Amino acid sequence: MLLDYNWFKQFIDPGINSEELGNKFHSLGFSLENVDDNIIDLEITPNRGDLQSIYGLAREFAASTGTRLKPFSAPIQVNKNSSDFVTISHKAQSSVLRYSYLIARRGKVQSSPDEIANRLKNQGLNPKNNIIDLTNYLMYESGQPIHAFDLSKISSINIDFANNKQSAQLLNGDTITLKEDNLIAHNKGKIIDLVGISGGAVPAVSDSTTEILIQAAIFSPEIIRQSSKSSGVKTPASYRYERGIDIELPLQALAVAKEMLEKYGFVVEEVVDLYPKPTNLKTINFDYAKIESVLGFAIDTEFIESSLYNLGFEIDNRLITVPSWRSHDINIPEDLIEEVLRIFGYDKIQSIALPVFKNPNITPNVFNENLKALLCNNGFTEVISSAFISTRECQLSDFNIDKVVEISNPLSDLNRYLRPTLKLKLIEAISTNPWLNDIVLFEIGNIFERPDHQTNMLGIISTKSIKSIDGIKSELHFESLDTEMPIMKHDKLRRRLYFLEISTESLKFETDTNINLTTGRYRKVSKFPPIILDIAIIVDQSVSPSDIERYIYSQSDKIIIAETFDEYVSDKFGSGKKSLAIHIIYQDISHTPLTDEIESLHILIKQKIVTQFNAIIR
Amino acid sequence: MSNKYPIGHNHPISQYIAKISSVMSDIGFETSYGAEITSEWYNFDSLRIFSGHPARDVQDTFWSTDNLVLRTHTSAHQVKSMESRTAPVRMIVPGRIYRNEATDATHEASFYQLEGFAIDKDINMGHLRYTLEYIFKKTLDSNIEVKLYPSYFPFVEPGMEVAMKWKNKWLEMGGCGMIHPDVITNMGLDNKIYQGFAFGMGLDRLVMLEREVDNIRHFYASDLRFLKQF
């Protein structure tokens, strides 16, 4: 919602600038997206349809600060409560909560006054003519969607649901095919309005229009939402209808419309209000003690009542009457607590330590985590891969497609199916790292089968055969994946892989290892391929590989990974010595690393290690 | 002597889940994971996100051809988990969730969330604030400041947004509030006796801050140049 600061000031002087006003609304629960000069972009939560207007926001500001607000407008005087011109079919009656309109004649369609045109431009609209602009202007100002029909082009307005496959041309020129859940207005069978969403092209107001019907109606939010979804048409009007509109607003909006029309030379001849089942105001019993129980602290009765009063609630001995504009979101005492708290300030909630609770469901061993830790201790690296597979990946595999969970509405074919195995994505993970020779990866995650079966699985994939895993007691059977398999070809894998998949529930393993929490911070990975060079050295047994790795990292920002891959202690290297082998993965953030440059760097690093750690190059 | 190299690496998300599970168990929270594919009831209606309400639009949903839902939030486990428990309860739910939306550096079709809730006779918003501060302090930075703003989620009332001050900037971290009385009823509890709080945060986001990761996609790309850093 774009809040136009100058327009806002028409109803209330906030006494603060636009930036401060934006922050005030932020503190009331409406995220401040941006302030551009005098236009404040606020995110209004979907429960607050009453704030989808300049006046609604002014009313909220007035309530929260206890300042005075200019009343919007007194309701217009109604001439009639029935109509021959507008009919509502039996089927549509429960969807039309209120239908108010006025008829005006003998006016002239021309361009709008500058102030109105400019305010509409600030909302991102192109001004058209004074009548179309009036409908938009009033909606942005009051929150009431308004529609204007050219009376010379229709002989009646009949509200009903559309017939299946009926077509309609909308104001913007698009022709759409309707369904039975679209509420429409027709004139002798010809559709003139997609009700609550968009007017039809035919009775639209043009420069030659002289007589008009201005509609200010309330439709069921659910019906408009359904109709908007099924037709695929969303407009600022449907957006407001879906969020609920104050049932008292139509006559107030028509009063302003009348004033504006008279300025344009029109004569308002008739005001009709079709409102067969008036809505009663809601009441809520509010026990103030509930506030302390929910917040953890008490608020003065006087503060509670003045806040609610300022927000438009009526208070009679703890029976609270909800104002008509809040009937869509205030239902229970907790809603009232939130209202009081919004005014009181959320920052006044103090932290209170949770009482001690011996939770019987906390077990000393966290099953999956112990397994993850154990596999890590075996030198395996954990991946988390996508839970989706594509149609292509599905076709390349041999599982029974009828059992695979299929997504009916994916945005991309990559998200067409839920994985029935961890295999495909683990094979892909190997192909993601073509520069490494020896890789062992594992994943613990769910696989799926129709309709809603979920099984937690361990998957391991390796470039070398694995005989046993320390800490796992179950017998493990690795499958050998041949390079001729379609999925292996798809991932361009030219070496044999070994794969295991087993349900974690059926696995027997030692549960006494915990995940080692590392402190690593992310260093940027280049999108260009790396160069991997190794170092093999003989050092004293007391030298720790991690010290050497740290030393290597400190030598150049081109080193993304330094990883010891072999440590061998033997007297054949000399008494008290051991051999170490280290991979160094070099990269360049801005381009493919230059071989010569990296090789020189590598030689330099080797020399420095020799000096620093008293090492011998093997 | 056996060769313990190369050393393995646990995924930074797994490390965070291990850390959060451990610190939360110290204040009485169990860890539960829940189902990733679930019904419309558990994901939406039991949480008052009704099909006729615009709040549904906020979460673009993957539907299966069997008309089931890939959970759009870990809150889907609230009512389900209470079928086999009773109050008092304290639980965190770290796990994978799904959103059917266009992806970029901060949005993925699937990512991790951290849900938490506590229910008893006298749980209040002060306890909620305490728990949120506890999480940020224990897993990110012991000096962190927290701010609460009003907000709206159909399954909490009052509803809030929690922000924390990180490197001198206020970052919105997630939604929270007091569990709506109808949701307490849907859990099979008497809402005149029991009340509680719930919160939900992006777990990836927490790990991105913890590890200074700039793109959520790194987590799911299986690139060893990334994974071996942790």
Helical residue percent of chain B?
10-25%
Give the second-level CATH assignment, the architecture of chain B.
2-Layer Sandwich
Q: Which homologous superfamily in CATH is the superfamily of the largest domain in chain A?
A: Phenylalanyl-trna Synthetase, Chain B, domain 3
- Oligomeric nature of the chains: heterodimer
- Uncertain ranges of chain A: none
Which strands sit side by side, in order, in the main sheet of chain B?
Answer: 1-4-5-9-8-7-6
- What's the main sheet of chain A like? 5 strands, mixed
Structural commentary:
The complex is a heterodimer of chains A (618) and B (230). Chain A has 618 residues and is an alpha+beta fold. Chain A has 5 domains: 2-65, Phenylalanyl-tRNA Synthetase, Chain B, domain 1; 86-274, Phenylalanyl-trna Synthetase, Chain B, domain 3 (Phenylalanyl-tRNA Synthetase, Chain B, domain 3), CATH 3.50.40.10; 283-346, Phenylalanyl-tRNA Synthetase, Chain B, domain 1 (2-Layer Sandwich), CATH 3.30.56; 367-506, Bira Bifunctional Protein, Domain 2 (BirA Bifunctional Protein, domain 2, 2-Layer Sandwich), CATH 3.30.930; 531-617, Ferrodoxin-fold anticodon-binding domain (Alpha-Beta Plaits, 2-Layer Sandwich). Helix content of chain A is 28%, strand content 24%. Chain A is built from 17 helices and 28 strands. In chain A, strands 4-7-10-11-12 form a 5-stranded mixed sheet. In chain A, a hairpin with a 5-residue loop joins strand 8 (167-169) and strand 9. In chain A, helix 4 (114-122) crosses helix 5. The longest helix of chain A is centred in the C-terminal third of the chain and has 19 residues, at 595-613. Chain A starts with a strand and ends with a strand. Chain B is an alpha+beta fold. Chain B has one domain (12-227): 2-Layer Sandwich (BirA Bifunctional Protein, domain 2). In chain B, 25% of the residues lie in helices and 27% in strands. Chain B is built from 7 helices and 9 strands, in the order αββαβαββαβββαβαα. Chain B has helices at 12-25, 40-43, 77-81, 125-139, 181-186, 203-211, 224-227; strands at 30-31, 37-38, 69-70, 89-98, 110-120, 146-151, 156-166, 169-179, 195-202. Chain B has a 7-stranded mixed sheet with strand order 1-4-5-9-8-7-6. The longest helix of chain B has 15 residues, at 125-139. Chain B is globular. The model of chain B has no long low-confidence stretch (mean pLDDT 94). The interface between A and B is large, with 113 and 103 residues.
